[in-house]
Every structure is written in structure tokens, then in C-alpha cells.
Amino acid sequence: KYYKLELCQNYMADAILQTAEDLHIAPLTKQLALHQAESILALENNWKEIGDEPWNLENLMYELPEKWELSHIALNHGGVIGYQIGCLRDVRDKGLPDYLQHTVKDSYLLPYLKKIVVDRDARVLGVGKRLIKSFLEKLLEKGHNRLIFRVRTDNPAVKFYEKLRFTQREEIDRTRPDGVASYFYDSSVSDVLKNL
User: Fold this and answer.
1) In CA terms, which of 106, 109, 168, 183 is 20 to 30 Å from 154?
2) What's the pTM?
3) With 0-12 CB in 10 A as exposed, 13-18 as middle and 19+ as buried, what is 43?
4) Is residue 65 within 8 Å of 88, Cβ to Cβ?
């Protein structure tokens, strides 16, 4: 039984990895988001796994500072297999830890990772890493070397962020509007890029 299961898993992994060369990361523009909205929103079932409400079209198209310059989409054989939403966030906003206001000098806007979603069946392709890498490279290109974001403590993606050595604050963050316990990350973009 175990031998057959291992053979099946190896075969599936080989089949998926053969398609990795067809993986393409592209900027997620407003026009592309509208065009691919149905496929993008179909990936939202991933969020139901952790108890968050999946996005709808209004959430996807909601305007945020520099959102369309800091977001990316992952395509494989023309199909959407992942996306990442970034933006600039005002550290004075309700729902962010207070300490942030005391750590900025020139601007209250800091790069923020709003969301990253990868199709469950495509995770072995390194899609998440490639989306994050494209995002971080774009941040450096635009002169940003700091990134903040939060992740629910029960989200399996915590391991992904640990592996990439994002800097996690020690205390549990409860500043989400719904009060759900989260880890808050405040990281150097160039330091994380060294791990990709």
C-alpha cells in the first residue's frame, strides 16, 4: 500500500513540476483583475479553510494606494493559479499596532501585503515564493525596504513566512477589526529577498 501511494505521489509531483516551466508571474493591473476576476475569485475557497470570508468582486476591485503597482498574478498554461495583493497602508489606521506610528520618519505610508493566495494543487510549484519575490523586487524598485503584514495564528501559511525568514513580532496581535489572534510581521525587504 505504501509503495503504491509513494509511486502515485511521485507521479503527480513529476506531472505538476513539468508544468512549472509554463508558470508566469505578471503584474496584476486593474484591467487584468477585471478580465480574470472569475478565475481569481475561484481561488478564494482557500480562505474558507482558515475561517476568513472569501473576497468578492467588490473586495478585489477596491482601490488602495499603489495597489495596482504592487500586485501580481501567477498564470500557468494561461490559467490563474495564484495572486498577491500589495498596497501602501497608513500606519495611523485603526487596526494596526500602535508602535508603527513611532517607527516612521517621512511618511506614514508603509508597504503592506494585503493577501496572497495560491491554488492548493499548485503549491508544489513554488508559486507563493515567486509571487513574494516579484512583490519584494517591485518594492525595492520603488524605493521601499520595509514590509508589514499580519497572518492569523491558525493560518498554515505561517510556516511559509517562517521559512522565508520574515520578521515576526513576539507579541500576539489582536488589532484586526474582528479581534482574531494574528502574528504581525515587520520585515526588511532586502533581508527576505536573500532567502528567495
Assistant:
1) 109
2) 0.86
3) buried
4) yes
